């Protein structure tokens, strides 16, 4: 048995936005439809190509649900490079939005502003206090300001 403190228990890890790259370097993520073109689940002679919906992505491994696959309730685990995104154009990237740099404008960056001085107080300010540590009381040997 493993003993875990209640503080160490965390919620479920959010992997909905995890991505991998398919055989044509298209980004694939959960709920995408893919076709299996290589690997152990690829179509053999006189067989229809398997395709399905991505349920989970873990690094380069992709969990695909295919209705045509009878074993393991239709779940397949494939390498991402063995898949091809259905409906992807050759050499295109999805969710491509025009950026301000393409329009000839620069993005507003506060660190590039000439009025930005780095921090609110300079490093050698007289308002900073001297640090020390307590020698008695409830918290001995604790560093403070």
TrEMBL record:
Residues 125-137 have a biased composition (Low complexity). One of its GO terms (biological process) is regulation of transcription by RNA polymerase II. Residues 20-80 form the Spt5 KOW domain. GO terms for molecular function: mRNA binding. One of its GO terms (cellular component) is DSIF complex. It comes from the Eukaryota. InterPro entries: KOW_Spt5_4, SPT5. Residues 95-124 have a biased composition (Polar residues). CDD domains: KOW_Spt5_4. Residues 1-22, 95-145 are annotated as: Disordered. PANTHER family: SUPPRESSOR OF TY 5 (PTHR11125), TRANSCRIPTION ELONGATION FACTOR SPT5 (PTHR11125:SF7). This is Spt5 KOW domain-containing protein.
């Amino acid at each position: 048995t493993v003993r875990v403190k209640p503080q160490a228990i965390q919620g479920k890890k959010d992997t909905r936005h995890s991505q991998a790259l398919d055989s044509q370097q298209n980004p694939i993520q959960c709920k995408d439809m893919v076709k299996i073109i290589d690997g152990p689940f690829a179509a053999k002679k006189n067989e229809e190509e398997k395709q399905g919906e991505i349920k989970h992505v873990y690094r380069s491994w992709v969990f695909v649900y295919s209705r045509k696959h009878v074993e393991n309730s239709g779940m397949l685990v494939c390498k991402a490079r063995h898949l091809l995104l259905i409906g992807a154009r050759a050499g295109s990237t999805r969710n491509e939005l025009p950026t301000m740099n393409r329009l000839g404008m620069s993005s507003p960056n506060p660190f590039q502003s000439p009025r930005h001085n780095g921090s609110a107080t300079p490093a050698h300010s007289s308002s900073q206090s001297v640090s020390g540590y307590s020698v008695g009381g409830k918290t001995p040997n604790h560093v403070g300001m």
